[in-house]
TrEMBL record:
Record bears the keyword Hydrolase: yes
GO molecular function, one term: hydrolase activity
Organism: Streptomyces mobaraensis (strain ATCC 29032 / DSM 40847 / JCM 4168 / NBRC 13819 / NCIMB 11159 / IPCR 16-22)
Name of this protein: EphC
Record-annotated AB hydrolase-1 domain positions: 25-280
Keywords carried by this UniProt record: Hydrolase
KW Hydrolase (keyword) present: yes
Top-level taxonomic group: Bacteria
Length: 296
């Protein structure tokens, strides 16, 4: 596996890559890193004939902090589409995203459909479904970090005791009980161990779900323009049965699957929590490779 970097939109983005062939861009979420989240997936995609590229999003080391501090979803989308260009991606490229990376994948597929042939997303469903869930009692309780991160004290709490809060929430809430999240947490320490980087990561929530903006018509229009429409491309949506953050039942999964375009699929990964690509790599890889290989 090689590690390189490229400047897009004025920000140096570092990435791990392996393989040759059509671009497969793998996008991570909070508070992770690309290489750690997809450590099992990158070599499998490379062996299947893809150029698998897993960047760290802006602000997450070793990628650079954006000079203007902007961590809006629109920036992540612009970066992903610019990476497609900078890395020589063609119309046969695929985008794969988890968590924030899933939201980004929904958005790049919609805003630049000519770049992406297929979409794989996990752990954050399309906006229509995620937005509905986030407004329920269960969603508000399960996604309480969205609201906690709006507080100034969050910077100090997340940094304290060698990021003990992050370690605990990753192990006890964001992954299934049987999973050991130690390797994933160590990657978080490398990516967000500096105060400015941890602040940038928290700003994902402060800038995209700002208390005085969230729920306003302007806020809704901005998000809808990015990921309010499901992709026209064949799409695979995967979700962990043990996800304690975004809880989904059979009816919800079926509704998501029914909303997607022709040739799409939606499936549970049994025994996985919210970090599906790392928690159940064999099952995840099997599903992804079969989907990418099938005729539609």
């Amino acid at each position: 596996m090689q590690r390189n970097s490229v400047v897009v939109n004025g920000v140096e983005i570092s990435y791990a890559e392996e393989g040759e062939g059509p671009l497969a861009l793998l996008l991570h979420g909070f508070p992770e890193s690309g290489e750690a989240t997809y450590r099992h997936v990158i070599p499998a995609l490379a062996a299947a004939g893809y150029r698998a590229v897993a960047p760290n999003i802006r602000g997450f080391a070793p990628s650079a902090l954006p000079a203007d501090g902007s961590m809006r979803l629109a920036d992540l989308v612009a970066d992903a589409n610019a990476l497609h260009e900078a890395l020589g991606g063609g119309p046969d490229a695929v985008v794969i995203g988890h968590d924030w990376g899933a939201a980004t994948a929904w958005a790049v597929a919609h805003t630049a459909p000519e770049r992406w042939a297929r979409v794989v997303a996990s752990d954050v469903p399309p906006l229509a479904f995620f937005g509905e869930y986030a407004n329920t009692y269960e969603g508000i309780e399960r996604l309480n970090h969205f609201w906690f991160f709006q507080m100034d004290m969050a910077d100090e709490v997340l940094a304290a005791d060698d990021m003990a809060w992050v370690r605990r929430v990753m192990q006890e809430k964001w992954t299934a009980d049987a999973y050991d999240a130690t390797a994933d947490f160590e990657a978080v320490r490398k990516a967000l161990g500096e105060p400015a980087r941890l602040r940038a990561a928290i700003d994902l929530y402060r800038m995209n779900f700002a208390p005085k903006e969230m729920g306003t018509p302007e806020w809704a229009a901005r998000h809808s323009a990015l990921w309010g429409e499901v992709p026209v491309q064949p799409t695979l949506y995967l979700h962990g049965t043990e996800d304690k953050s975004v809880v989904l039942d059979e009816a919800g999964l079926a509704a998501i699957g029914a909303s997607l375009s022709k040739g799409s699929e939606a499936a549970f990964i049994e025994g996985a929590g919210h970090l599906v690509p790392a928690e159940k790599p064999a099952e995840y890889v099997e599903r992804v490779l079969a989907f990418l290989a099938k005729e539609v």
